């Protein structure tokens, strides 16, 4: 395995500026925060396939705008899609799986689930480790951890020779029942690292030491598949930062919503697959806590996708496993089997292929479709004038009058309305309509698609979306947030400050985090033994997080006997016997809320024991919500917008709004995003500068 060298990563300094950078499908968003709450937002086009170039460009521009030097920076915080892209584009390493004899095909057997029950043309995703690259070892570990057959040293040497001759670039090792007796698997992985220098090697027990051979195998394979790509990306980006004199700690957002140092990410890249979406949810979580909102739907729409997540009682839902690479995830519960199983903690985010760059098309029956195909940043929407020749949602918004007809992103992206009208006109002819009606139809189709994402994290979890407030963010989220909320019966939408760069802002306020997990065993029924295991796990977490005020959470994965899926239950602080009893009560309540029924204590079983440690961010969300002082917001302008019919609509900046609610329609233009306030809604500013859109509640609703 390629071992990270601490000397190759930025270190520390006595500086005062923090910079967060988030890669999106169209834009790379950078935001710099100074010691006196100075905010410098920056938006640059993403630079696929070398996304690091866009990050460095954005950081350099932010530094120039802030008039700071490299020595002034005390942290670089990053959210990246590099691991996700490696899977979606099938651009990872040539990966092998080494497993116990007789278990070569566990990846293809998987679980008996079909995400599309009635689609006879559906096929399982191609394994990331093809069958010809799956190798067996004649060894055996029993379910109780008893090793009945050791690995033969000569067999392992011969295996290494085969891996070398087959040109293998990465290896995942997952032996049967290794989670209860990990020594043999780790020994195999260590020996392969010795015999195959330069090859990335993963031991499944170092990533996911939990029951479930399929899930452990799949997680280990995904980790190895993206390992070399992430290694090269992170180390190159770190080197580029050092070349520019930025000797500051470099951290990356994990799927679970906590920051992890870059050198650890190189060892466990599977932990950053949902890096970008997680950063946005954390920003919403911190904002919800500031505004004292109990239940919040986080709605994030960018250039490629729209994502939804639920924050309940100030905390986002965290799933213990999920799937990646199976297309756009609409509902986790019903789409299992569509992608590659990954068993690491991740914020539960539902995603659909509806972003600003999503392509508008017509099927054979004459129905409009939006996405999941996207124009991305290159060529991008037709209105960008970069060669795009297919209509996108951004083009539709230009035709509808919702977007500035000359430029967006603070003037960095020029808009050519005639190009948008031309490509929309082609689609309009196919459905015997006009460009404006077709554009509005595409807008409504996108809203319908997005409701599925919100329902996946609310009603399908037994939660009513009408009980929540929506926070809409991302480059395109505020254009659709109010209409989406209306469709779902949500009365209030908050559009935060720096909404188009809100995921980057989330990086500034995110906590550093590390988790460890241990399978629950019979001996842990003794509270003394369980307390000892918690102490060992807590010590491991503290050792990883280092110095600082570290907070710890004890967590059980719990279910009823006979169930396949479990729920994460956080134990309260205090004596373990009392916490154990309270955990059962919490599990019953959560099961009742989620599934509509609950059982007795006798049916409850614990699957895993977890300890989550985190160090709170030094930056609070209120400090990062500052806006430049604007004494003169300038004159209002007017633009014709289409809401089923043309309407002359005021176009304002955020500075034009006040604490007094103003009726829609309104278009509010920020540097990084545009907010649409439809007819029938009102908009005002709260004390932090956030736009609050309200719908008048229907009688009896």
Percentage of helical residues? 25-40%
Structural class call reads alpha+beta
Oligomer: single chain
Secondary structure tally: strands:
37
> Which descriptor suits the 3D outline?
globular
Spans where pLDDT lies below 50 across 5 or more residues? 1-14, 328-334
| Rounded average pLDDT | 88
User: What distance lies between the first and last C-alpha atoms, to the nearest angstrom?
Assistant: 59 Å
- Taking all Cα atoms into account, the compactness measure Rg is 26 Å
- What is the overall number of helices? 16
Largest sheet: 9 strands, mixed
Please explain how this structure is put together.
There is one protein chain. This protein has 701 residues and is α+β, with helices and mostly antiparallel strands. Among the domains are: 1-271, no CATH class; 358-444, no CATH class; 512-616, no CATH class. Helix content is 31%, strand content 26%. The chain contains 16 helices and 37 strands. The strands form 10 sheets. Strands 13, 14, 15, 20, 25, 26, 33, 36 and 37 form a 9-stranded mixed sheet that branches. Strand 13 (295-301) and strand 14 (306-312) form a beta hairpin. Helix 12 (435-457) packs across helix 13. The model is unreliable at 1-14 and 328-334 (pLDDT under 50).
Short key terms for the protein model shown above:
about 700 residues; alpha+beta; nine-stranded mixed β-sheet; six-stranded mixed β-sheet; 16 helices; about 30% helix; about 25% strand; globular
């Amino acid at each position: 395995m390629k071992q990270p060298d601490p000397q190759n990563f930025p270190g520390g300094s006595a500086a005062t500026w923090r910079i967060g950078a988030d890669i999106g499908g169209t834009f790379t968003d950078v935001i710099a925060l100074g010691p006196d709450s100075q905010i410098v937002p920056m938006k640059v086009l993403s630079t696929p396939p070398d996304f690091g170039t866009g990050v460095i460009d954005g950081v350099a521009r932010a530094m120039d705008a802030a008039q700071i030097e490299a020595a002034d920076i005390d942290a670089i915080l990053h959210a990246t899609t590099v691991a996700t892209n490696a899977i979606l584009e099938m651009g990872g390493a040539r990966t092998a799986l080494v497993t116990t004899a007789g278990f070569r095909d566990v990846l293809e057997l998987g679980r008996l689930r079909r995400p599309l029950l009635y689609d006879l043309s559906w096929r399982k995703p191609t394994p990331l480790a093809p069958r010809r690259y799956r190798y067996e070892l004649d060894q055996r570990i029993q379910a109780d951890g008893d090793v009945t057959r050791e690995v033969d040293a000569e067999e392992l040497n011969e295996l290494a020779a085969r891996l070398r001759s087959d040109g293998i670039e990465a290896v995942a090792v997952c032996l049967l029942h290794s989670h209860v007796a990990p020594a043999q698997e780790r020994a195999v992985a260590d020996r392969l690292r010795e015999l195959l220098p330069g090859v990335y090697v993963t031991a499944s027990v170092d990533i996911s030491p939990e029951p479930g051979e399929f899930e452990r195998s799949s997680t280990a394979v995904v980790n190895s598949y993206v390992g070399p790509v992430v290694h090269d990306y992170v180390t190159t980006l770190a080197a580029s930062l050092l070349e520019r004199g930025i000797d500051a700690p470099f951290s990356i957002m994990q799927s679970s919503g906590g920051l992890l140092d870059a050198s650890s990410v190189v060892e466990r890249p599977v932990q950053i697959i949902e890096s970008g979406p997680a950063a946005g949810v954390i920003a919403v979580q911190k904002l919800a806590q500031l505004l004292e909102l109990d239940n919040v739907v986080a709605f994030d729409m960018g250039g490629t996708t729209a994502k939804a997540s639920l924050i309940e009682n100030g905390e986002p839902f965290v799933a213990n496993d999920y799937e990646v690479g199976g297309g756009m995830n609409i509902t986790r519960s019903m789409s299992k089997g569509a992608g590659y199983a990954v068993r690491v903690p991740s914020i539960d985010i539902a995603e659909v292929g509806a972003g600003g760059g999503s392509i508008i098309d017509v099927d054979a029956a004459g129905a409009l479709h939006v996405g999941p195909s996207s124009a991305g940043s290159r060529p991008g929407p037709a209105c960008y004038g970069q060669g795009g020749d297919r209509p996108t949602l951004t083009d539709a918004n230009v035709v509808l009058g919702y977007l500035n007809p000359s430029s967006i992103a603070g003037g960095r992206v020029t808009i050519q309305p005639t190009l948008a009208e031309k490509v929309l006109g082609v689609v309009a002819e196919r459905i015997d309509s006009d460009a404006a009606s077709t554009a509005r139809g595409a807008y409504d189709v996108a809203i319908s698609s997005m409701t599925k994402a919100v329902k996946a994290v609310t009603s399908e979890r037994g939660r009513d979306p009408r009980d929540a407030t929506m926070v809409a963010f991302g480059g395109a989220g505020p254009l659709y947030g109010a209409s989406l909320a209306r469709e779902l019966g949500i009365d209030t939408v908050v559009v935060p400050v720096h909404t188009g760069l809100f995921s980057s802002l989330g990086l500034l306020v995110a906590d550093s985090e590390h988790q460890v997990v241990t399978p629950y065993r019979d001996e842990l029924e003794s509270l003394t033994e369980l307390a000892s295991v918690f102490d060992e796990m807590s010590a491991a977490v503290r050792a990883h997080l280092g110095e600082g005020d570290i907070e710890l959470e004890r967590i059980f994965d719990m279910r009823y006997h006979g169930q396949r899926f479990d729920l994460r239950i956080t134990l309260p602080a205090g004596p373990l016997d009392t916490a154990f009893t309270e955990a059962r009560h919490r599990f019953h309540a959560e099961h009742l809320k989620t599934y509509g029924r609950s059982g007795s204590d006798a049916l409850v079983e614990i699957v895993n024991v977890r300890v989550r440690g985190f160090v709170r961010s030094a930056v609070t969300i209120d400090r990062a919500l500052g806006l430049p002082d604007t004494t003169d917001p300038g004159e209002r302008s007017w633009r014709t917008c289409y809401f089923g019919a043309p309407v002359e609509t005021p176009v304002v900046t955020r500075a034009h709004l006040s604490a007094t609610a103003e009726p829609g329609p309104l278009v509010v233009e920020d540097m990084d995003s545009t907010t649409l306030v439809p007819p029938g809604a009102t908009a005002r500013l709260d004390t932090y500068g956030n736009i609050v859109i309200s719908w008048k509640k229907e009688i009896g609703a």
